[in-house]
Design a protein that fits this description.
single chain; alpha/beta; Aldehyde Dehydrogenase, Chain A, domain 1; Aldehyde Dehydrogenase, Chain A, domain 2; six-stranded mixed beta sheet; five-stranded parallel beta sheet; 12 helices; 11 strands; globular
Length: 353
Amino acid sequence: MSNKNYISNAFVELGKFINQFATIPFAKQEHVLQNDLFFDGFKHQIKLAKEHNGWFTESNIVYTLNSWSKELTDSKINSWTSKYNFNSKNPKTVAIIMAGNIPLVGFHDFLSVLISGHNVLVKQSSNDKHLLPFLAKYLEVIEPSFKGRITFTEEKLENFDAVIATGSDNTARYFEYYFKNKPSIIRKNRNSVAVLTGNETSEQLEALSDDIFRYYGLGCRNVSKIFIPKNYNFDAFFNAVYKWHPIINESKYANNYDYNKAVYLMSEFEMLENGFLMIKEDESYASPIATLFYEYYNDIHEIKDKLIADKDKIQCIVSNKLTDSDIAFGETQNPQLSDYADNLDTIEFLLKI
């Protein structure tokens, strides 16, 4: 669409703004537009987000902001959008129902709707309601043509043409029924896995620990399960993940660890644990907080077939080049603009409505 350039430019300026919050301590920079108006206000929103949701620690919020500041650059936005044909047409209103499991988890959908030339109607999760409205206000000041095109609501969604909704498998059934007459993307539960061979370097396993523990394992891109060969020796794995042991000092995580450990012990489940992580053999993909599931495999081809069969349950596969689409160790929480949730091209969907 002809307005794509000014939208891109506004998000590039937003990237510069949030880059000030990409490290601790925050660093105010002179060249950032409207900084006097917004810098202290966003610091306050980060504080509110932390107080409102105990999982949204300052380090996790900063990690999210750092990731987005790296993606919201002129070259990366242009590279992402260059493969699409943004022909001018009447903008529609697209409703987004956002999850609240990790900070700014719905930002990619928000960006995609606006860069496609549509108007956005956002229904946020109560767990994550402080950061995005403030950033939207920044965009409106940087680019006044956004005014009237971005709406947040806590009421029932009305007057929209299409919907992108993210939730659990249970809420997805409700969404599918409720939005059956609208063009929609309905996202369900997904988890990420790693396939290990036993030949991984200590650096790779250490990087894998970031995929497991970042955001306390609450994101769909977090590795919640590993596939391992028979007779796998866990010693190297436990040594490599030890750098995350301070996580047990955080009360919400520690409470989940103690609770899940008690459940496993009372149920007499076999598991390994190191004081901050439990490892349990289980065929499921979604593991509780402070728990990593594992499953043995006999043959690497067998595991490839299983992952293809279960592709609707899996967000990312981490491995040492098992397939072309696999993600390198330590990279699951650094998605690029072209990495779409559930591998559904959001822009393609938005350009067709």
